[in-house]
Each structure stands twice: as C-alpha cells, then as structure tokens.
Amino acid sequence: MKNNTSKVFIIVVILIVAVLVIFQMNGKKDTNQTAETAIATLQTIVDSDSYSVEVIDENGETHVLEDTNKTRLAEIITSTIQTTQESDFTVSGPQISVRIYTDDPASEVVLVVYDMGEETNMGTLQSGGQEYFVQNCGEVLNYLAEIGFLTQR
What we know:
The chain is α+β, with helices and mostly antiparallel strands. The chain has helices at 2-47, 67-80, 138-146, and strands spanning 52-56, 62-65, 82-83, 95-101, 108-114, 123-127, 130-135.
C-alpha cells in the first residue's frame, strides 16, 4: 500500500512540474508575440499617414512635430527598434518619450528612450497598457538631437 502511495505522489509531482513548465513557456511566447504586435501596431499607425507625433522632453514639455520631422522620426523608429528579452538594464538618467497616435484612442504607441549618452541603446515601447523592452534606440536619440532636442549625446 505504501509503495502505491509513493508512486501516485511521484506521478502527481511530475505532472505539476510539467504543467508549470508549459505555462512558463507559453507565457514567454505570448510576451514576445505581444511586443511584436506592439511594433506591428506602430507600423500600421505610420502607414495610415494620418497620425500625430509628440516628443516629451526631459523636462516633461510636450512638442508636436510637423511634416518632415514627424515622418522622418516615425520612419526611424519603425525601421530601427527591435524587441528584446533583455530586461536587466538599469532605468536611470534622463528619458525622452515619443508618442505616435491617431484619432482612435486604441491606436497609440509610446517609445521611451533612456538617454545614456553614447551608450544609449535600450528603451521601452508602451502599447495597449503594456510595456515592452526594445533595443536599437540610439538612432532615434540621434535624430532627436539633430532636430534640436537636448540629449546627452
């Protein structure tokens, strides 16, 4: 009787571990897919040609970009940023946010670039109430400096 109880207990433990592993693996896949979905949402907004771009500088002031600057910044963002699983970088120092949106409140994406001077690479992409880590944000910061925003670069 003891032997059967031990076998049942071991089987139950193995099943629990297997279920936990499956849930963890699915959770990681969903996070990556959702981050890619946020980038796809951003691309859809930019492709619509009827969007607005605001830059929130380090002092919290909002600046609306027009025409060429708006288009170029949106193109740089969509062509350079990439999703990453890296989440261990330290969020410190100044940050600049770029808000790209349409009249539809569900169509809004915010890219936050952490200005770490020449080392700037990481940022976060906020969409649908979620926040995802992205990389290759240096070109975005370079363009913002080029059009007159104060950066550490």
